[in-house]
Every structure is written in structure tokens, then in C-alpha cells.
Batch of 2 targets.
Target 1
Amino acid sequence: MIRVAVAGAAGRMGQAVCETVEAADDTELAGRADPALDVALADVLGGADVVVDFTTPDTALANATACLEAGVHAVVGTTGFDLDALRATAEGSQANCFVAPNFAIGAVLLMQVSQAIAPHMPECEIVELHDAAGGNVHQPIHSVRLPGLVAHQEVIFGGEGQTLAIRHDSIDRRSFMPGVLLAVRKVGGLPDRFTVGLENLL
Ligand SMILES: NC(=O)c1ccc[n+]([C@@H]2O[C@H](COP(=O)([O-])OP(=O)(O)OC[C@H]3O[C@@H](n4cnc5c(N)ncnc54)[C@H](O)[C@@H]3O)[C@@H](O)[C@H]2O)c1
């Protein structure tokens, strides 16, 4: 059994991760850390093999650093913070860190298909649409923040007399759970201390 603690356990993603970890045959929930539950990450680290972090951009780096310093593998879904600093911490540690900006397998497939299209239709625009929690806005990507959205990406290619649009919609937070579970299962065996992107696990 893989013992999994969740940071941000009272949040929307954290609650879904707790349910997923409890339901899977090979994982058990080792702790729920969240200021809203009055439980600090340090209180649950001792009983965990892996910590899954879905918190906020200003706490994710400190949380992941605490995991790695304790020899606990970290799976990080929080977006909008400095990945270079986390890479530097992970590379000197005794545990592995896996980060995915998007845990939905369909979104990873969208990126792979886009790479196949791009050499043939190099003119393209990207639109990403999230609710207010979605950080990580990169210019010149068009960004939309509205209540009701979960996570949506659209890539529109334009060529002479034609356009080609492909879009992925996460319409429910459950869309991220197979990817999170995959990362929980694989993080301990990754060849590198720091890995970014679900495509590396598929
Ligand atoms: N990578 C992905 O696929 C993916 C998918 C969805 C959301 N996200 C990202 O996940 C993050 C969380 O999203 P959400 O919608 O669940 O947000 P949320 O606001 O619902 O939940 C965040 C939770 O983190 C808790 N928290 C704050 N500081 C903490 C700390 N130091 N330790 C432990 N818990 C702490 C808060 O109390 C809150 O309960 C955001 O950055 C969002 O962009 C990533």
C-alpha cells in the first residue's frame, strides 16, 4: 500500500484526491493537511510515502520542500509558482518530485496532437479558460477567468482558406484523478529527482 497524505485537503481538488486515494486498492489516506482543518503538513509527513499538493502558489514551494527534506515523494498540482526553485531543491534531495500543470490525460493528448499539427499549420493561437483558482497565465496565450469554468484549453490553427481547432474540457475535477493516481503510483520509481509533465508517465 502507498501511504498518501494530501496538502490542501479541504480544497476542491484536495477533497477529490482524498476520495480517490481512499477508493483505490493500492493507496491509503495517511493524512489531510490544511489550515482549514487545523492540520499542518508537518503533522502528517511522518506517516506518508507520498504527499499530493493542491494548495496555493504562495505555499506550494515550501510544502514540497518540506516533503523532500523529510524524504517523502511529492506530487504537485498547484500552478503559478517558481518551478526552477523546486527543481533545485529536488535535485539535492533523497526523494522524488513530480509536477504536472495539468493532470487530465485528455489535455496531454491535446498537446501531443498539437505538436503533430504544428509543422503543417504553424500559425496558431491558444486560449486557456479556468476558474478564479487557476494561476499561471502566460502571454501571449489568451486567458479567460470566469466562475463555472473548471479547466479548458483550445488550440486554433490557421492556414490558407482553413482553420483547425482542437479543444479539451475538464468539466469535472474527477477528470484529473486518473492522472493524480498514476503520479502517486509512479513518483517513487522515476529515474530523475524532478519531473514535469504527465506525458512522462504515459
Ligand atoms: N495541475 C492540475 O491539473 C490542476 C487542476 C486543477 C487545479 N489545479 C491547481 O490546484 C490548486 C488548488 O486548486 P483548488 O481549486 O483545489 O483550490 P482551493 O482554493 O479550493 O483549495 C486550496 C486549499 O489549500 C489550502 N491551503 C492553503 N495553504 C495551505 C498550506 N500551507 N498547507 C496545506 N493546505 C493549504 C486552503 O486552505 C484550501 O483548502 C490551484 O493552484 C489550481 O490552479 C491544478
Target 2
Amino acid sequence: MRPYLLAESSWKDVKGEKTQVVVLPWGATEAHNYHLPYATDNYQIEAIAAEAGKQAWEAGVKVKVLPNIPFGVNTGQADIKLDINLYPSTQLAILSDIIEVLNRQGIYKIILLNGHGGNNFKPLLRELGLKYPKMLLVMTNFFQTVDKNAFFEEQGDHADEMETSLMMHLQPDLVLPLEQAGSGKENKSRIAGIREGWAWAERQWTMVSEDTGIGNPYKATAEKGKKFFKAVSQKVGELIKDVAEVDIENRYEFE
Ligand SMILES: [Zn+2]
């Protein structure tokens, strides 16, 4: 029984406890090249949330990690079989209900731990922040917590060297041999601004990638995944501690 995971806690433990901060992991269910499972984002974010929660708990923080939400925004992958899409407006409704519960019960701090590139929580937190002024709403994308260049040879953003390495470390039984993986080649946009990264349009996945991957997975190793997992979990653990300890009314430094 891990007391920092709500899923494993009982009413007996939770009843009298003064919960300081709640962590909500949020993943996605989608194809990840030929070699990784559909729940890749969920396995990753659940493991990071649990490890970070553990570290914060051991540092004395009363944190509760909520169960992961397994479906994310997959509007660009409508034609990829069984990629399950939640609209951003559905996410807003789910998040709004969860935050209402916390606010009513006087638990004023939540960290959204995002595991999927299509989930964009900033606009949702802006809207909810105005509606729940007592709450401190924080989010982080796990894939931006540390510099990936320090851990991986090739960059990508879907079923790439990073995700493949992480899964080799976390769920090796669910990773198919790399010779079965596609190359993760990304077809570039014909629009210069999009190609150069300063303009944006949602990617039409079947036009962008043949194997659903974006990023070369072939240089992935479990050892790389282990190091990255450790670094990310530590950063997130520190974030949980910082958020738990800060006084919401006095959270900025003045000269
Ligand atoms: Zn992923």
C-alpha cells in the first residue's frame, strides 16, 4: 500500500489526513509506432507520478496522486484506428468537476501532470483559475521537465527514442523488438512557417507519419530510459514539495 496514491488508500487513512496537494496525471490512448502499446503515455505518466509522489511523501509532504485519466486530445488522429479522442471542452468539464471537489473540501493545490503532447491544459487552467480564485492550479508536461538532449541522441515527439527508452525501462514486456518498429519519419509541411516552427496547424497524422511514430526509435535503450525516468521523477517530486510548501497568498518574492 502506497499512502501517496489515492487508489491504494482507504477512508481510514484519508479521513483525518491534512492533504496539502493533489497530483492529477493525464495521459492518452493512441497508437505509438508499431512497437509500443496504445497505453504508452499512461504507463509513463503513472510511473512518474508514483515515483515523484513517493519522493515528496518521504520528504514529509502530504500528497495524494489521483488515478490517471487515460484518454487525451487526439483530434489530429481521427483516422488512426482506436485512438480515443477527448475534446478540449470535455477535458475542461472533467477538470472543472475535479477542481470543484477539491475547492469545496479546502484542498487548494493541484498539479496537473501531463503525459501527452495533444493535451493543452494552460487555457483550461486560465479559465478555472478565474472561477476558483482560492486554488493554486499548476501544470507541467513531463517531457519538458529536463533537457532531453542530455539523455537522447535523436529528438522526436511521438514513440521516439525517449518514449521507447522509457518503456524499455518501465514496461519491457510490452515493447516489441526494435526491428519491428517503423523509422518514425516525419513528413514536413509544405508551408514554410509551419516547417520552421513559428506557425502552427494541427498535424494530420496519417499525412505526417506512415507508422504513427515521429522520431527515430532505433537508438533507444532501457539504460537511457532509466536515467531519464530518474531525472524527471526527481524534478516532479521537487515541484510537488515546492507547491505543497508555498503560501498561496504570499507566493511571489518581493525585494
Ligand atoms: Zn506518447
